[in-house]
Structures are given as structure tokens and as C-alpha cells.
Specification:
alpha+beta
Length: about 210
């Protein structure tokens, strides 16, 4: 990914509204990731408020037959997946912004001291937690995804956000792997049973009261 300029433009989904921000500080994170994520401290030119954001170039995105033929830019596909989850009221990022056809910006979830982990990692490190609540959250996400005919990624679809002063909660962060089920591409039984396996992560780990 090219080096960012001193200012950067953000486009709000489904609008032509463009906001400009000044980059105060930027650093690479996860250098081995194909999405080349960067953490940036930016200042809005309108409100002068400072925000910590993650900027990345989404790579591994499932494309339907229609999207393949349309040659839709990766950033638009990623935002489409985010909107699917928001419409289904499935916990995910509060906002995303398009920078250009290859890059998006999203909130830095660790700015307030929170920690983001894979579910299996969290369960292993926190066996004393009341993880029945997380299992219930997982089932609720499955139910909402099924109702909206969304196929959530089978591998690491969910993450846990934990904070010293808050209860841990599940969130869907793998937006690129989220799919909108299409009956012409998937057998109804596949759609019906796709998300059930997400709950297995809790069955493989001890859940304590």
C-alpha cells in the first residue's frame, strides 16, 4: 500500500458525504498480514476532534457470481458486508468509511483499553469467566444471521472484546468472509445449517459458572 498523504478523505457509506482528516501519527501493525493494516491518529478538519482508526486494504473477500461479473472494488464489498450485519442487528463495528477503492477505515477498538481476542483464546485464558453469557450471545448471533440469510465465516467469525470495567461481548469482525445467501448458489439445507457450527467453539472449551 502506498504511503498515506498528510490528509485523507473518508466517504460515509451510501452517501456522497466526504470528510477530510489530518493524519497526526501513523504506524504499521500486523506487518505479515496481506491487508497491511495501519493504526492512525487523525484529526477531523471539521470538528478538530482526534480519533484513533485502523486503515487497511481488505484482501480475502468472498465474491458472489454477480459481484465477480461486476468487478466491484474490494472496499465497496467490505462495506456491503458490514451493512448486512448492521441491518441484521448483529454486533459488529460501529462504523466504517471508504477511503478509496482498495482501502477502508474503521474504529480502533483498543483505544479505550479494550482487548480483542479470538473466542478460543479468550476462553482458554479466562476459564473463570461466566462464559455462558458469551455462548448465549453466540446463539443470538446465529439466530439473527439465519433470519437474515447471512452465512458467517466458519473460521474465526467471532471475536471477544473485553475491558477491565465491562462485561466481555462477542462481535463479528471478519466482514470479508460474510456472505449473503443466494438460493441460486446454495442449497437450502446448506443455508439452514451453515452457522450452527459457530457454537461448537464453546462446546470444545470448559464453560464455568
Amino acid at each position: 500500500m502506498d504511503n498515506l498523504s498528510e490528509t485523507i478523505n473518508f466517504q460515509k457509506p451510501d452517501t456522497k458525504q466526504i470528510n477530510t482528516a489530518k493524519i497526526i501519527k501513523i504506524e504499521d501493525i500486523s506487518p505479515n498480514s496481506g491487508e497491511t493494516p495501519q493504526k492512525a491518529l487523525i484529526q477531523s478538519e471539521n470538528s478538530k476532534k482526534e480519533f484513533s482508526v485502523i486503515i487497511k486494504a481488505p484482501q480475502l473477500i468472498f465474491r458472489s457470481k454477480q459481484e465477480k461479473s461486476d468487478n466491484t472494488p474490494n472496499s465497496d464489498l467490505w462495506i456491503n458486508r458490514w451493512q448486512y450485519l448492521r441491518d441484521a442487528e448483529i454486533p459488529t463495528l460501529d462504523w466504517v468509511r471508504k477511503i478509496d477503492n482498495q482501502r477502508i477505515a474503521m474504529p480502533d477498538l483498543t483505544r479505550d483499553g479494550s482487548k480483542v481476542e479470538r473466542v478460543e483464546t479468550f476462553l482458554t485464558h479466562n476459564p473463570e469467566q461466566n462464559n455462558y453469557e458469551l455462548k448465549d450471545q453466540c446463539q443470538d448471533i446465529i439466530n439473527k444471521a439465519d433470519k437474515a440469510t447471512l452465512l458467517l465465516p466458519g473460521d474465526d467469525a467471532l471475536a471477544v472484546i473485553s475491558h477491565p470495567n465491562k462485561k466481555p461481548k462477542l462481535i463479528v469482525l471478519d466482514l470479508g468472509g460474510t456472505q449473503k445467501a443466494n438460493d441460486s448458489e446454495y442449497h437450502p439445507d446448506v443455508i439452514k445449517n451453515w452457522n450452527k457450527n459457530l457454537i461448537n467453539i464453546f462446546n470444545r472449551n470448559p464453560i464455568t459458572k
